[in-house]
């Protein structure tokens, strides 16, 4: 039976900066200006906005029990929508239950509202963990034995086709099937029942889940959608010192730019223009939970439209389902000193995988004392080295140097959209905040403040919700 871990799921949100009502002093000044000069716009004040510093410093940091095999975990969500559509769930093994040996870290990037991402945050990890816990032990070890004997186990992520991975896939699909099921709706004439029953189905969400088994040291990464998981692994010199970091991309974005997804969609829907202008039926991702309008049959959609306040059937809707919640799963054997970065596409639209790993490596140079420590609270409170330096991409500690800034390998869209070059800083006590700051302007503090000051709907033109989790092994 599944037992809830020491740390329950958390959802972290920020209220977007909005103007508050002017203070009495401001009103007095405004009235004076009005009486003397006619109507004048009152000037904004720093007190009217949540500062970038306050938002970036508000993410949680955990130091799990030793049996988790994870020494520290940092997280942060900065929203661009009025209500964040990103959410994060984290579960670590409890200290008093020897059967608990897996850690679960999941990030959900919602769209068309937060209903589905919120639901998955509350339920998906627990359902997957329950399904895995029911497997016989010999199946649980099969993946470990396969990887232990693999020449690739120390070099990169490999496909995970064992029983545990099949169980994860089945659990993902089972949850999605249940959430978009319409049988309870069609068996009733109530429109209210239909609206309330299908409130999650009309929303959508990507899901990125990492499962770490302390006994086998296997990390499994399951992805549905276009979030991404990346592993950083330190490279040691002959004298045992860290000589940069290797980059291991553990997931492939499932979108219209992924050749495998294009082939899959064209094979399933021959003769249809499913992929157009870099979108899948108008959406950015090729797989997702929810988004039932792209999964229900045309017949069901017509019934919902005619009787239950459903949407009109889209003209290009011929042979649904077009989207699936089935995840792609990879596995890698963890080494001491590895770190995992999980983030929504809001981060990857600003930073490459290589930049993210290099930035965490840079952060560790100043903060390793508060990560690999037996006294986390004490060492976390230690005064940090004040680092005022501005870093360029080629100064990041990577085993393979980054290519020049104008190289086409960097296809992140936002920095060119902001008309600034990438310049990085190393000022934060949280690795998640460090990545988020450098994704949203880096050394250009005025740009960072401006981007975070943007409110919906204008904010979505310049940035997306950014959800980040960094785990250190």
TrEMBL record:
SMART domains (alphabetical): PP2Cc (SM00332)
Residues in coiled coil: none
Domain PPM-type phosphatase: 70-473
CDD domains linked: PP2Cc (cd00143)
A GO-annotated cellular component: mitochondrion
One function term, GO molecular function aspect: [pyruvate dehydrogenase (acetyl-transferring)]-phosphatase activity
PROSITE patterns the record matches: PPM_2
InterPro entries: PP2C, PPM-type-like_dom_sf, PPM-type_phosphatase-like_dom
Gene3D superfamilies: PPM-type phosphatase domain (3.60.40.10)
Domain of life: Eukaryota
UniProt xrefs under PANTHER family: GM14286P (PTHR13832:SF792), PROTEIN PHOSPHATASE 2C (PTHR13832)
Name of the protein: Protein serine threonine phosphatase 2C
Organism for this UniProt entry: Lentinula edodes (Shiitake mushroom)
């Amino acid at each position: 039976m599944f037992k809830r871990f020491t740390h329950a799921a958390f959802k972290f949100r920020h209220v977007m900066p909005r103007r508050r009502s002017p203070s009495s002093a401001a009103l007095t000044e405004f009235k004076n200006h009005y009486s003397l000069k006619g109507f004048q716009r009152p000037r904004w004040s720093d007190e009217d906005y949540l500062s970038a510093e306050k938002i970036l410093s508000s993410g949680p940091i955990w130091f799990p029990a030793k049996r988790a095999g994870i020494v520290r975990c940092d997280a942060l969500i900065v929203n661009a929508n009025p209500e964040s559509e990103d959410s994060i769930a984290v579960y670590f093994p409890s200290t008093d239950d020897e059967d608990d040996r897996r850690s679960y870290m999941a990030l959900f990037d919602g769209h068309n509202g937060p209903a589905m991402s919120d639901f998955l945050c509350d339920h998906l990890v627990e359902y997957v963990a329950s399904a895995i816990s029911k497997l016989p032990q010999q199946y649980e070890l099969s993946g470990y034995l396969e990887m232990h004997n693999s020449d690739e186990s120390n070099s990169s992520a490999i496909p995970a086709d064992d029983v545990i991975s099949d169980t994860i896939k089945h659990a993902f699909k089972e949850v999605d099937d249940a959430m978009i099921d319409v049988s309870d709706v069609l068996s009733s004439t109530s429109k209210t029942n239909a609206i309330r029953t299908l409130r999650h189905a009309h929303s959508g969400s990507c899901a990125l889940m990492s499962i770490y088994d302390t006994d086998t040291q296997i990390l499994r990464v399951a992805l549905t959608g276009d979030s991404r998981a990346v592993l950083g692994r330190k490279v040691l010199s002959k004298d045992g010192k860290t000589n940069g970091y290797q980059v291991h991309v553990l997931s492939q974005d499932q979108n219209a730019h992924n050749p495998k997804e294009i082939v899959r969609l064209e094979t399933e829907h021959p003769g249809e223009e499913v992929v157009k202008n870099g979108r899948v039926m108008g959406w950015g991702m090729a797989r997702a939970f929810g988004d039932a309008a792209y999964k229900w049959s045309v017949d069901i959609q017509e019934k919902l439209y005619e009787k239950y306040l459903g949407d009109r059937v889209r003209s290009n809707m011929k042979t649904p389902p077009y989207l699936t919640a089935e995840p792609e799963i990879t596995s890698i054997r963890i080494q001491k000193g590895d770190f995992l970065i999980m983030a929504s596409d809001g981060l990857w639209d600003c930073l490459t995988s290589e930049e993210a790993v290099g930035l965490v490596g840079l952060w560790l140079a100043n903060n390793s004392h508060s990560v690999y420590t037996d006294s986390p609270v004490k060492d976390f409170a230690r005064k940090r080295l004040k680092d005022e330096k501005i870093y360029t991409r080629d100064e990041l500690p990577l085993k393979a140097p980054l290519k020049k800034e104008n190289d086409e390998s960097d296809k992140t869209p936002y920095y060119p959209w902001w008309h600034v070059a990438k310049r990085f800083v190393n000022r934060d006590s949280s690795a998640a905040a460090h990545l988020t700051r450098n994704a949203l302007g880096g050394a250009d503090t005025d740009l960072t403040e401006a981007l975070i000051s943007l409110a919906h709907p204008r904010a979505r033109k310049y940035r997306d919700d950014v959800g980040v989790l960094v785990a250190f092994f």
